[in-house]
Structure formats: structure tokens, C-alpha cells
Design brief:
- The chain is α/β, with parallel strands linked by helices.
- It has a single domain (about 1-230), classed as 3-Layer(aba) Sandwich (Rossmann fold), CATH 3.40.50.1580.
- The protein is built from 5 helices and 10 strands.
- The protein has helices spanning about 60-65, 120-135, 155-160, 170-180, 205-225; strands at about 1-5, 20-25, 30-35, 40-45, 70-80, 90, 95-100, 140-145, 165-170, 185-195.
- Strands 1, 2, 3, 4, 5, 6, 7, 8, 9 and 10 form a 10-stranded mixed sheet that branches.
- α1 (about 60-65) crosses α4 (about 170-180).
- The protein starts with a strand and ends with a helix.
Length: about 230
């Protein structure tokens, strides 16, 4: 079975009400793993959905999958579009990422230079399965991670839109930590809004949530159907 990490909206589906909830103690703290028939699931923001992005215990989450023997992880991440031609709501499967600040690592006590990357084989599997399933996805893109919990300023977006395609607050931490443990990680990004300043319209939480709702059921159904084939 694979491991899936998702946000609040992803875990609100009816299927999760019958999941077996297990409390996993790791060297980095405690986290919860939900066992479904199709996959193991970690609710990124906690069981109650209250943990903000900058307070997520990424180390505990990734290490919990390692304890469970999971070698393949799919992250479902909500993002903002940095490109006018990348319309929300759409779905993107990133091939690379940028996060040269606030680095999370397991290696605090020794020098280890990890070469970070998204697992290309797993990423291509997602793309191939999306074509079979009839799910339209953007097959390539660079994810830029900011710290949160606040959204980015217009000036920050103006800077990073020259380097990336989408912006979010969670994926690169998960991808880097997974790589450090030798686990394979790929992401499915729900493009829920244009980033602040890409267009003149005011960015509101309501807009983000409305677009997220349009994508979440499609992504959930996709993962439920292909989890056993990855």
C-alpha cells in the first residue's frame, strides 16, 4: 500500500469515517495514521484540521510512514497559480521545487548533503494513471514553497513567479524529508487560486475554498482508484 498525505478538505470524505486511526510515536513526536482499504493516510493538519502550515510536524509525519513500511508517498497539496495561463481550478503534477529558506531536515547532528528531488518514476506513474482515468492534469511545473501561515505579498509573488509555476506552504518539506529516508515522493497539486497580485481581483479565502471543493472530489476518486496500482 502507498501512503497519502492530504489537507483538511481531502480528509472530509465519507470514506475516512470508517478508517482505523492509529497513534504513531516517532523520535520526532506523535502523529496519526489512518488505515483505509486502499492506502494509509496522514491528515497533514491533524485529526481536527487545526494545525497551521508552519506548525506541522513534518518529521513525525514522514517518519511515521517509514515506521509503517511505506516506501511510496503521494502528497495532495493546495497551491496558488503563478502563471496567468495556469487556470484554477486545475490539477498539476510538479516535477521540481524551490525552497532555499527554512529548510527542514532529519540531519541535525551530522553533515549529510542530500540531493533533493521528486521521484520521477512515481510522478510518471501518476501521469500515466491520470490519462487512463480520464483526469486532466498539467504534467510539469515547479513548486515554490513559502513559510506561511500568511499568504504572500504582491512583491513576493512578482519575484517568485519568474522561477516557478505554483506556490504553496507544505510540499517541499515532505519531499525533502522523504528523500532523506530513501522514500519515494510525488505530489498532486490542486490549483485553487491565482497567487496574490497575478490579477487585480482581490484574493479571498472564499475563492480558494470554492475552487478547492471543485478539485478535491476528483483527486480523491482518482487516488482511491489507482492507489493499488502504483
Amino acid at each position: 500500500m502507498i501512503g497519502v498525505i492530504g489537507g483538511v478538505g481531502f480528509s472530509e470524505a465519507e470514506i475516512f469515517k470508517n478508517a482505523i486511526v492509529e497513534e504513531i510515536e516517532t523520535p520526532y513526536g506523535m502523529t496519526f495514521v489512518l488505515t483505509l482499504r486502499e492506502f494509509f493516510f496522514i491528515p497533514r493538519h491533524g485529526l481536527n484540521g487545526k494545525i497551521p502550515p508552519h506548525m506541522i510536524n513534518y518529521k513525525a509525519n514522514i517518519f511515521a510512514f517509514n515506521i509503517k513500511g511505506i516506501t511510496k508517498i503521494i502528497g495532495v497539496n493546495s497551491v496558488g497559480s503563478l502563471k496567468k495561463e495556469l487556470y484554477p481550478p486545475s490539477i498539476l503534477i510538479p516535477h521540481d521545487y524551490i525552497c532555499p529558506w527554512d529548510i527542514v531536515t532529519f540531519f541535525d547532528d551530522k553533515i549529510v548533503h542530500t540531493i533533493p528531488s521528486i521521484d520521477e518514476e512515481l510522478r510518471q506513474s501518476l501521469i500515466s494513471k491520470s490519462e487512463e482515468f480520464g483526469l486532466k492534469v498539467v504534467k510539469k511545473g515547479v513548486y515554490v514553497q513559502t513559510t506561511g501561515p500568511r499568504l504572500e505579498t504582491k512583491a513576493e509573488i512578482q519575484m517568485i513567479c519568474n522561477f516557478g509555476d505554483v506556490v504553496g506552504m507544505t510540499m517541499t518539506n515532505e519531499a525533502t524529508l522523504a528523500k532523506e529516508l530513501g522514500l519515494r515522493y510525488a505530489s498532486i497539486c490542486s490549483v485553487d487560486n491565482y497567487a496574490h497580485g497575478i490579477f487585480d481581483e482581490e484574493l479571498t479565502n472564499e475563492v480558494i475554498l470554492n475552487n478547492a471543493r471543485k478539485n478535491r472530489e476528483k483527486i480523491r476518486e482518482f487516488i482511491l482508484n489507482i492507489a493499488g496500482e502504483l
